[in-house]
Protein: Alpha N-terminal protein methyltransferase 1
Amino acid sequence: MNPTKFYSDAIEYWNGIEPSVNGMLGGLGTGRIPQVDAIASRTFLRRLDYRLKKIDALVAADCGAGIGRVTEFVLLKVASHVDIVEPVEKFVSQAKVHLQDKPCSFICTGLQNWTPEKNRYGLIWNQWCLSHLTNDDLVAYLIRCSEALSENGVICIKENVSSFTESFDKEDSSVTRTDDSFRKIFQMANLVIIAESLQHGFPDELYPVKMFALVPKPSN
Structure:
């Protein structure tokens, strides 16, 4: 895989997608999917209350945020401020308009190039975006995220999971990883899983979607 082409092809694909909820969700944004998704994510975060509620003025990062759907319906329910990180300029522009009255900052860059501020975040949320990173870049990115966590902070990942083998989608230049692949990558990034859950209520023809909550492996 040529990483330069892998990333440029993905940006080219998303530049052709309308900046709307329906666009973000591949045509599934007009039915019940957005609500089912957000409810499951908020339910998952409640399992982490024992950590997140210890953090004063929690700052979250919404990574691969698109137009800020997850920020609006999930992250601002728990965070006092959200940094939106998104590589597609028109999505960032739409997010700025849609969230103009919300406590948000906007960072237009690819996750492979983003170095988050150390110790800034109580929650780093990654949803339907890590498939656009190569394995090496994903490990390096997760290590940087780990260093960006505040005390009691958590990295959350919500991604499609392939049941048998990794699957490359040429259309949007993405890789759907297996559960085992994710676990190996987490281990390489020196992260441990403290919670995980399967998304329910999505159409059967879609990939399974899993949520993971990760924290740095204790040094001792």
